[in-house]
Known about the structure:
The protein is built from eleven helices and 13 strands. By secondary structure, the protein is α/β, with parallel strands linked by helices. Helix 5 (196-203) runs antiparallel to helix 6 (207-214). The longest helix has 26 residues, at 282-307. The relative contact order is 0.18.
Amino acid sequence: MTRSIEIVGGGLAGLGLGLGLRRAGADVTVFEAGSYPRHRVCGEFISGLGETTIARLGLQPLLADAQRLDEVEWYFGGRPTRRQRLPRPALAVSRYVLDARMAEAFTAAGGRLRTATRVEMGETPEGRVFATGRRRASPAWLGLKLHARGLPLTRALEFHLGDGAYVGLCPVEEGRTNVCGLFRQRPDLAAPRETVLAAYLRAAGLGALAARLDTAEVCPESRCAVAGVGFDRGATTGERMSLGDAFALIPPFTGNGMAMALQSAELAIDPLLAWARGESRWADTLRLVRRRLRRRFGCRLAAAELLHPFLHEPPRQRWLAATARAGILPLQPLYHLLH
C-alpha cells in the first residue's frame, strides 16, 4: 500500500472499516474523541446483518456470544398488539461490550487507535473518512437509554408505542435488559437524570412500562441521553466521505442502524483499498463509495421515513395497531423492505 487512510470516529462504522482495511494490509489510523468502554444511546440489537459482512470485517469472534432474538412483541396502549417472528434472528449485544471488542481487535490487527483525540472537522484531506456518528439536527427528538436487571421480557424483543414516543427492550449480557426510547422533547417536562426516562415514559402514556422499570434494578452507569436526533436519506454532496450515521441515520425502530453502520464500512473497503494502492483518484473513490451507499440504502431509508410517523403519532398508531390485530399488516414484506 502506498497511501495511508485516516478514519475519524471510532464507533461501529469507523472500527468496522478499520478492521476490514487492516485485514487487507492497509495502513490505517482511527481517531476517536472518547474512550472505551462506554455506553451509547442505542437499541443494541443488530437486525439484517449478513454473514458476508460479518466475515469481511472479521466480526465472528466478537459476536459469538451475542444473544439470538427471533421474536418481537408490539405493544400499544400498554397492551400487546401483535407478535412477530423475525425472518432472521437479530443479534443482541451492548455497545459497551461491542465497541470495546472492536477497538481491541483493531489494535491487535496492527491498526493505530488514537483515543481522546479530536480532529479538525473542517479539514478534508484525501484519505480521510468521517464516521463521526449522527449529524446535529433540530432538538425535536430525544434519545434515552439505560440497562436494568430483574426486568423480565414477554418476548425476546419488545416494542412499545406511546404518544410521541416508542421504546424498545432487548436482553444484553450479564442478565441486563437494554431499555432505549425515542421521544419528542417536552420542554415543560423537567426531571433529574435518575428519573428522566420514567418521566418521559409516563408523559407518553407508557405508565405500565414505567411501573415495570420501577421494580427493576437500574445500572446507574448505563444511563445516557442524546438530543437533537434527526433522520434523513443520506449525505450525497460535499467533499467528505461519510459512513454510518454520518452518512444517514435511519429511524431506530427498524433495528437496522447498527447493521447499516457495519454494512457501510464493508461497501467502502474495496474502493479505499484501490485508492491506497494508488490505482484510483480520491475524487473517483468518493463518488464510487457514495454511489454504493445510495444503491444499498436508498430504498430502506425512504421506506423508514414513510413509516416513522406511524410509530409515534397516536392517530397513525391506532391505525397500525388495528391492522396488526386484524392480521392484515404485512409485517414480513415490511421487514424485507427495511432490511
